[in-house]
UniProtKB/TrEMBL annotation:
Record InterPro entries: Cyt_P450_B, Cyt_P450_CS, Cyt_P450_sf
Family: Belongs to the cytochrome P450 family.
GO molecular-function term, one example from the UniProt record: heme binding
Pro residues: bias regions: 456-469
Protein name stated in the entry: Cytochrome P450
Residue segments, region Disordered: 1-30, 447-472
């Protein structure tokens, strides 16, 4: 990166502040802020400091004081993502990699090390690899997807509903996407606690991450071999049989990409939405009056707390300019969707609700825009809705300020979301979700999948029913029949 000793705030003036590199103040060489260490404990606050000091594109330092541009502006992020002639995802172009500033043991290496998968590819190779993934995604039938999500939710809720307490992160949000993904990929028998733990372990980058990666790859290689020999109607078989002609290794690597990207992002999304629903008075107020639906709550969460907070990175292919900054060929840039989504130029009032506006950066943009976003949305929409149908009386079982997050440059996970509720009997997983609680007053806030402004006669709320009692035979209205068909249960 251009080592501009620019510091509009004068932080590189020794008379005005701590000397450059002073670790006590978190500032590194050139008076630049570090995106790691003590100063980065609250990355959201640090991004706002950078925005105030430098504007939409700010210079900063990654681990080992590797220089990086942080793209904070909404429009600047979109411009970067949509300009493949100027920026690529290929870290081999990064001057810091070429000149050895990035050491092989840099802890962020797994986030940017080049691999032969669509994320890092460009041009025709990107089209070939991404075409196979999107082709396989296009064969997913959304009605049966919703049915899988509902059944997996019922199964998970059955494991804790009699207890009256649960941790919705480890017992729900982290399991649901993996259960659904295993079903989609055609390996439902491989969904188990070990796979969930291995995926978590890899993403946390613990010392057992390499062994966990080997375990995940062995599962994915096995399913690739199985489906190559005997294709079925599932994502893996369609990926293998796509005219792009992926090799077995390419298939397994793309299954890994889909499994991990989808798992982590969707688990974060579900946890974030549930936290908002349980704690945010804005949500309660709107949900109270039935003014907000689960999909709208999900979309608001994608603005306020995108499941990935930043992607490392994009790399300049030529000298260029972004947000008034001179970017040199080989500079690295952080696609920072979390600060991009709260850019005051697009959101002057952060408390305003963003209903109907999907122009957030949570799924990226340009040629690499997430091809699985509707699947991620569906898992969160249907899963949260079905969970709240089963435990509508769930309340946070700790003080809100006691909730803890684990943060890294790329994401921010809620560690736990403890809830309490009246114990309830398990329910047949093949049934649609119902409130089968001991009779109890329903809370006056409740999320719904119903239309806020119904385009058809408003559906009646689902009446509480005991698990063992069959649903009373009654004629359903056209709108309810449609909703059942649409949800797949
Ligand atoms: C809430 C859930 C999800 C979020 C927030 C999310 C977010 C993202 C983002 C931000 C990118 C683009 C990164 C960039 O510009 O470099 C991306 C790429 C990608 N996502 Fe997702 N994702 C989610 C779910 C999924 C699911 C369910 C799938 C698959 C079924 C998936 C598959 C992919 C793939 C294959 C790419 C790479 C595309 C390319 O490079 O051309 N994602 N995702």
């Amino acid at each position: 990166m251009t080592p501009e000793s620019h510091s509009p705030t004068g932080t590189d003036d020794p008379t005005l502040g701590p000397p450059p590199g002073c670790p006590a103040h978190g500032l590194g060489p050139g008076g630049l802020h570090r995106l790691y260490g003590p100063e980065a404990e609250d990355l959201g606050a640090l991004y706002e400091k950078l925005r105030a000091e430098h504007g939409a594109v700010a210079p900063a330092l990654l681990h080992d004081d590797v220089p990086i541009w942080v793209v904070l502006g909404h429009g600047e992020n979109l411009h970067m993502l949509s300009s493949p002639a100027q920026y690529a995802h290929d870290s081999r172009l990064w001057t810091a990699v070429q000149d050895g500033t990035v050491k092989p043991d840099n802890p962020l290496m797994p986030l940017f090390a080049w691999q032969p998968i669509c994320v890092y590819a460009e041009g025709d190779e990107h089209l070939r690899l991404r075409g196979a993934v999107t082709g396989a995604i296009s064969t997913i039938e959304f009605r049966s997807l919703r049915r899988h999500i509902n059944r997996a939710t019922q199964h998970l809720v059955n494991q804790f509903c009699e207890l009256g307490t649960a941790d919705l992160v480890s017992q729900f949000a982290e399991h649901l996407p993996m259960a659904v993904l295993c079903e989609i990929l055609g390996m439902p028998e491989d969904y188990n606690e070990r796979l969930v733990q291995a995926a978590r372990d890899m993403l946390k980058g613990t010392e057992t991450a390499i062994a966990s990666n080997e375990y995940v790859m062995s599962v994915l290689t096995r399913v690739t071999t199985r489906r190559r020999a005997k294709p079925e109607d599932d994502f893996t078989s369609h990926l293998i049989n796509h005219p792009a002609g992926l090799t077995d290794d390419e298939v397994a690597q793309h299954l890994r990409l889909v499994l991990l990207a989808a798992y982590e992002a969707t688990a974060n999304l579900i946890a974030n939405v549930l936290r908002m629903v349980l704690t945010d008075p804005r949500f309660r107020a709107q949900l109270n009056g039935g003014q907000m639906t689960v999909p709208q709550a999900v979309e608001q969460s994608l603005w306020d707390e995108p499941p990935f907070s930043a992607v490392l990175g994009y790399f300049a292919k030529q000298d260029t300019e972004l947000g008034g900054r001179r970017i040199r060929k080989g500079d690295g840039l952080l696609f920072a969707m979390a600060p991009g989504n709260v850019d005051p130029r697009v959101r002057p009032d952060l408390t305003a609700n963003m209903m109907g506006n999907r122009s957030h950066l949570a799924f990226g943009g340009g040629p690499h825009e997430c091809p699985g976003q509707d699947i991620g949305r569906a898992i969160a929409d249907v899963g949260v809705d079905a969970l709240l149908m089963r435990v509508p009386d769930a309340e946070l079982d700790c003080e809100e300020h006691e909730l803890r997050w684990r943060s890294s440059i790329s994401s921010r996970h809620l560690v736990e979301l403890p809830v309490r509720f009246a114990p309830k009997p398990p329910q047949d997983v093949m049934q649609r979700p119902a409130v089968n609680a001991v009779p109890r007053q329903r809370p006056n806030w409740q999320v719904t999948t119903e239309q806020a402004e119904p385009v058809a006669p408003a559906p009646q709320p689902v009446a509480p029913q005991p698990a063992s009692t069959p649903e009373p035979a009654r004629r359903l209205g056209a709108w309810q029949r449609f909703l059942r068909w649409w949800r797949g249960y």
